[in-house]
Amino acid sequence: MATRHEALEIPEILRRISSYLPGPDFTSCLQTCHSFHTILTPLLYNQLTLVQKEEKRPTLEALARYIHLVGALKFEHFMSAEYLNVGFKGLHSIHMVNMNMNNEFQVGTVEEIMNALLRIIRENPALRKWTLCNPWPRLSSDVWKELSSLKNNPTQGEPGQQLAVRSRGCDVLDLTSISVTHDAKHWFLRACADARELRVLNVSFMVANGNPDNCQLFLQLDKRPPQGRRVEIVEFNGYDVINQLTFLSHLVEARHIAWTSPAAGRIPIQTRPLPTLEDLKQFIKPTTWPKLRSLDLTGIPGRQLVKFSDECIGHILSCLPDNQLEEFKLQGSTFGPLSAAELRRQFSCLQDLRLEPAGLLEQSELIQEVMESCPKLKVLRAGMFSVGHMRRGKPWVCHGLKELAVQIDLESDRNGAVVDKTVDHDTYVEKHAASRRYVFERLAKLTELVELDTSLPYYGHGDMTYYMLSNRYQSPYWTLEYQIPCGLDQLAVLKKLETLKFSNNYQRIYKEDLAWLADNLPSLKTICAELHRNPDKYKELAAFLLEKGVAMGEQRYK
């Protein structure tokens, strides 16, 4: 057998085995191998990964033989000018990932590799997807310039047909952990602006002698606006928040925008002024994002440093067209009455709502309103939901809900009664059982649920913390108990439920309750919960679940 990549060099294998087989057997073997080769080779070469170990990648000769089959090329902790220069003509995507940060597995000089990349770009007109994760060596200014200038290159058509002209920029530009040299900064930003799909995660600009430069003037966004339909910006160091906001405000074609933690990077917060309400009013107007369907403001401004006010979030939502927003995610900023009032304009089409838990019952009334007003809702993640608001509200209309993550609070259903948590069998326990049965009855109407999470939420921002709440809400007196006498059996209709979570709520759950869950929920795969305070008892219950085919998932705050 061949000592090199056997599957990729089948002709070499045939030459070796021909000397060992008689004629008829070899003919049969040849026919079988030919069919195998015809079917397998395109599958192997369509998405080709080149790695460090020589024996795990095809030779240059084998690659040259099948190069016409390669559509997606990936360099994994390895870079070679020789392989880049083989002569690719049909690439549509390239992926470069390198965690070595050295030239140990770099074949060729930096200049040779950059010239080879330029050749790749120019000779592969369909190459419109670039995924770069800590590429080494760093891409040069000329490469970024070439990526930003993908235009007026006609694609091949049928004889007699007019050739189609490609639009400017990449279709997909996915960038992770990238350092951009000072001389490449402008062309890098231009390439980002021209990408139809852009994802920027942990990108930093290298400073040269502290010289300021006007990136916005170079980009000329008014004359040549960004082309992004789907844009995600996460930790963009060296490109200040106002510049980021300016960039985002020109995304008139955007369907999805995610702006995560613009103040959470390594640069001190003092050097990165956050936009005020006046700034937002200047940049974000009713005509700014006319086609936007998904807005992710998770972590603005990030890491509990500063928050956008309710007025700021309300203004952003007020500038979106009515009945168009399908997804809204918010973390690290204030979602208050002004924001809620503007979000109501989107209830008829809202499908995914994720709010960072805030306060004790600040979001409870809104949760009930969302569930009774959003018929297309698929995902809802928020804070505490009181049984009182549940009872006083209208029937839920979100019958297609697949993911629900709220903490159920029973206090509002007690008519002012105070539970003595120091007593094992408080007189109100039986009274609360009726409330729990009511909640399980309501949850049973959500027959499409795939994930149900009633864990105590984590308050990462604001005055409340998990530790402040734990003494009050960890006791099962205050929330659901997953026991059959409390109405657990009403969940038997949730045949699609795969994940059940009730972490941070110490339960008095028994084997028969767990057995019921495993036997009556056929899709159940994972339970994330604190089943018992006693560690030995917990291990016993977890082992019992595993025997039933249900795994114990990771608990977030144990």
Itemize the secondary structure elements and their pairings.
Layout (H helix, E strand, L loop, with lengths): L9 H8 L5 H24 E4 L9 H6 L6 E5 L2 E2 H4 L8 E5 L8 E2 L2 H14 L5 E5 L7 H8 L23 E9 L4 H10 L2 E9 L9 H5 L10 E8 L3 H9 L6 E5 L16 H7 L10 E5 L11 H9 L8 E5 L5 H7 L8 E4 L8 H10 L5 E8 H6 L10 E7 L19 H15 L7 E3 L12 H8 L25 E4 L8 H10 L5 E4 L5 H13 L3 E2 L6
Parallel strand pairs: 1-2, 2-4, 3-5, 4-6, 6-7, 7-8, 8-9, 9-10, 10-11, 11-12, 12-13, 13-14, 14-15, 15-16, 16-17, 17-18, 18-19
Helix pairs in contact: 5-6, 6-7, 11-12
Give an account of the 3D structure:
The chain has 558 residues and is α/β, with parallel strands linked by helices. Among the domains are: 1-64, no CATH class; 351-558, Leucine-rich repeat, LRR (right-handed beta-alpha superhelix), CATH 3.80.10. It is 31% helix and 17% strand. The protein has 18 helices and 19 strands. The protein has helices spanning 10-17, 23-46, 60-65, 81-84, 110-123, 141-148, 185-194, 215-219, 241-249, 277-283, 310-318, 337-343, 364-373, 387-392, 429-443, 466-473, 511-520, 535-547; strands spanning 47-50, 72-76, 79-80, 93-97, 106-107, 129-133, 172-180, 197-205, 230-237, 256-260, 294-298, 327-331, 352-355, 379-386, 403-409, 451-453, 499-502, 526-529, 551-552. The chain has a 17-stranded parallel β-sheet. Strands 3-5 form a two-stranded parallel ribbon. Helix 5 runs parallel beside helix 6 (141-148), helix 6 runs parallel beside helix 7 and helix 11 packs parallel to helix 12 (337-343). The longest helix is centred in the first third of the chain and has 24 residues, at 23-46. The protein is globular and about 75 Å long.
